[in-house]
Write a structure and sequence with these properties.
- It catalyses: Acts on substrates that are at least partially unfolded. The cleavage site P1 residue is normally between a pair of hydrophobic residues, such as Val-|-Val.
- This is Probable periplasmic serine endoprotease DegP-like.
- Its EC number is 3.4.21.107.
- This protein is α+β, with helices and mostly antiparallel strands and 493 residues long.
- It folds into four domains: 110 residues, Thrombin, subunit H, CATH 2.40.10; 94 residues, Thrombin, subunit H (Beta Barrel), CATH 2.40.10.10; 94 residues, Pdz3 Domain; 97 residues, PDZ domain (Pdz3 Domain), CATH 2.30.42.10.
- The chain has ten helices and 29 strands.
- Strand 3 and strand 4 form a beta hairpin.
Amino acid sequence: MVSLFSAKFLGRGLGAVALAVAVGASLVGAPAPVAAHGPDSIPDLAEGLLDAVVNISTAQTVKAQRSVPLPQVPEGSPFQEFFDEFFNRQNKDGDQPRRVQSLGSGFVIDGNEGIVVTNNHVIEDADEITVNFNDGTKLEAEVLGTDTKTDIAVLKVKPQTPLKDVHFGDSETMRVGDWVMAIGNPFGLGGTVTTGIVSARNRDINSGPYDNYLQTDASINRGNSGGPLFNQEGEVIGINTAIISPSGGSIGIGFAIPSHTAMRVIDQLRQFGETRRGWLGVRIQEVTDEIAESLGMAKSEGALVAGVTEDGPAEAAGLQPGDVVLRFDGQVVPTMRDLPRMVADTTIGKEVEVVVLRKGEEVILKVTLGRLEEAEVAESAESSTNEQAAPVRKETLLGMELSDLTDEARAKFSIEADVKGVLVANVEDGSVAQEKRVQAGDVIVEVAQEPVASPADVVDQVEKLKKEDRKSALLLLSNGRGELRFVPLRIEE
């Protein structure tokens, strides 16, 4: 089984990376192709950077809780008093606080101010942080700020003389195959240099909402976390963070936070001690091939708006559930996961242009971004409705039994008063609805981006789609709490 680790917490073992350059043979009558070579040797580059890379050691006080069971001995046995005294003393000693230490890497980005960058997981929950320099100097560090979403921490030390520092380069210019060099503290072996290439870009390893990692085959192991990944000019284009490995040691699949992502976070942590990200106020989901077809899109792209936060920037600008965000602030939105990063990197309070696809037409909206809410906001439940008693209307469609949303249905399925639409009273086994995880208690709010208020409305909309030769119907569903999601259902003849 292959596992994903933060480089700080890896097990034993070192991976080897084999590098080879293939030179094409010349063809008769044709010029020989030019072979691009990597650096033959990098001692001058490495020597100039080693003093700016640091080892970071941390200490944390934890309370060990150990309870050793007392052996069962006969009452009055001569061993009873001995065991009572021995095990009571062992359990008491086991409860004493103890010091836990760990190691990581980092690098100096401002030698005059003593600013050091590392990973958040390297220093998380530490009581003491010591920065160890290449010349043997040790300085205590304070934390200026941390960001768990990108796993970045900024530290400050107080040097007596200016420190050697390094500068960021542009990770956006890095191409797959470009040579890179990592320096860090693997397994406590400080000042270790490894080389490799950029193996891939824009990797999503499911570690956070803004994943956009550079992948490299330069050896990264336990203790490399927080260390720099350099380009051939000696500029930091990444912060080494994690590896994939079946054994815990390097197998040539490592990940680094790109400098393009890190620089903005670091600047905010230095200025404010916290991040200040843009906030749009929407809940989004992926535009799958089925959803794209149901919306009449030529290809799956953009981010589908599944919900709009009440009183948020998106609502004020007129964004609606069912809109597909195609462009944000002049940038194309290729997939759902690209939009959160674009929004987060945009200045709070800036008015941006958002292009959405709405019912087959592109609509341009102006949105003034707010600040991302980090804390969960408690939702207050609105009270009651006054529905007139009326005969309950029912229909069966696409494996769903549809019904009016009555007070009895709200009570049965715990559906809040502000949820409006058509109730899914039952789902047939083996139906297309069951395949898409539609379940009894869901509420159909829209069909093909048209609001529905009765089972007949749903049937009419599906029949309309059939006449338009659509292969699927896009339903906007709500659960009992009002959380929305889009579900495409195949239209069966």
